[in-house]
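Replying to the earlier thread about multi-chain prediction with a worked example.

Input:
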Amino acid sequence: MQRPGRATIADVAKAAGVSKATVSRFLNHRERLLSPDIAARVEAAVAQLAYTPSPMAQALSHGRSRLIGLIVADITNPYSVAVLRGAEKACQEAGYLVMLFNLGNDVDREREAIDALAGYQVDGFILNTLGRGGLVDADALHGKPAVLVDRMHAGMHSDFVSLDNTAAMKTACGHLVEGGYRELLYITEPLKGVSSRRERTAAFGACVAAHEPRVAGEVFECTGDDGDALDAALSALRKRARRGRRVAVLAGNAVVTLRVAAAMARLDLSFGTDVGFVGFDDAEWAPLIGPGLTAVAQPTDAIGRAAATCLIERLRGLEGPARQLLLPGELVVRGSSAAA
Amino acid sequence: MQRPGRATIADVAKAAGVSKATVSRFLNHRERLLSPDIAARVEAAVAQLAYTPSPMAQALSHGRSRLIGLIVADITNPYSVAVLRGAEKACQEAGYLVMLFNLGNDVDREREAIDALAGYQVDGFILNTLGRGGLVDADALHGKPAVLVDRMHAGMHSDFVSLDNTAAMKTACGHLVEGGYRELLYITEPLKGVSSRRERTAAFGACVAAHEPRVAGEVFECTGDDGDALDAALSALRKRARRGRRVAVLAGNAVVTLRVAAAMARLDLSFGTDVGFVGFDDAEWAPLIGPGLTAVAQPTDAIGRAAATCLIERLRGLEGPARQLLLPGELVVRGSSAAA
DNA sequence: TTGTACGCGTTATCAG
DNA sequence: CTGATAACGCGTACAA
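Result:
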């Protein structure tokens, strides 16, 4: 029994009557032959002392830590949590541990986060951040590989995993148009150069253009502070509906969906009857609001898994240009987008 | 310029023309006097090379890693995320980093999680788990301190931080009784020995007893699989309301609230008019369901902070018996518990 | 006040 | 096939 920590490789070596090197080889280079009796002795000693190598010491010596740094812009965002969950699962299966760093929406802390994580010798990064706090380039990453999730950073050629925003938006718009909606309002958080927001907004514009002049569309950037502006936008939309032209809102993510739902309640408007609705992100509460909220469900688990897998492939030495994985969303139809 | 990693203490020493020990002292023992010119040289070298000590090597050598292991039963639970957020903030402020391990509701992986984290020399643990997978005692913690959050483990004398369940339940019940509700149904996830669930259930029983025979109460354990049973329980409750005796449901947490809301929709029942409602956990969507869901808001951020602070105090050497921090909840009244 | 030498636990190299 | 030995980066007795 050891008093302080766990058994070390030296303890095992002593117990087995061999050298530390032999023990190390027994564990790491099983392919090379060891004389059977020595192997047996080592194995017994390892088992008896319940020996586990110290990842810290391994990291120091061998260079790899089997740690993956996951940086999230805002852990409050259910999307991020869902992705994190998928990534964590994949990492654990591959023998990696995740170190989480939450930016709490403080853009400037991204550099700090990377440095802190790099200090612990993480083998690579999964980044779900804005990437605006001081140009996160390959250099700032301390030469370690990274995978970007949902948000592309300008001038960074890392692997990238995300929802296929263009296709998803096309599906959502198509569904509404088919259901008879003719005035579409896309509500998004302020673009601020966030790639996913820009992509969705651009795709929205393209969809509307494809149906013009039968369909009209508008974009509204919605901040958290200014509920009045949102109310105004919604009631304007409602008023603009004339001659049976039905109106609908598309929400850029779950946060916006919540804001829209609150505004609808304030204005005493009903989903589906007064205003059609489709939102990105299918939250657990989506079926319970009004007649049920139609949503574009993101394959968050798959996105997280893909990000982790991608990164681990790189860690295993995969070379080649940056890859882009765009995963398809799924439209979950509920009462809020009922046809005429 | 270093090719591989960052500058090491040796690089700084060389650049300043001193020994590694001097550099180390300059950083760690500022109180002791160093000759001013040497100090200046070291300082300059440190700045110029942008030197940062490797936490890994520090951990290996000095024993402490400035890492805190946070083990969560289920990261999908918004409560856990909120607590995590508070804990993470406090940790960062104190210079600690959080390593997250998510059990994904797999009880048996708790031991695995602790061992993995201990391998990385975490200085202590924050545990939000069931504590049933193989008796997590002080021994299994590798001698490191721990703080329990929300769920007490049997036979473990660690610090404990949680909502004051008894007081919160008393407030919730009192509010309903005062509002004229006379038939109360408390719906909880299966108790399974989870301390917080048991406490709330016990407190519910006590509250009902205090008002008997004016008020009647019942407890229903609601699994995720069996929606029919929940529907039956709800419609039974509804039927049992006679002679103007109003009925209400209390939900043990946000997950249950979601299930209840779904069941209410299936049965075409309305919150507030048909059935009163108060739920534990005030989720962001609570105001948007029906007439707004009355909720017991937990001080999740404070709980997380308190847990982290508690642990860090122990890490700094605080002795003494295990402490219990019970933080008060806040009742947020909305339409679902409207008075007669 | 500063430098030397060693230990932390592991892996890799190089002899044997 | 196996055993010394030198890193890895840092803190700290101990010596000067």
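The longest strand of chain A covers residues 181-188.

Feel free to reuse this layout for your own posts.
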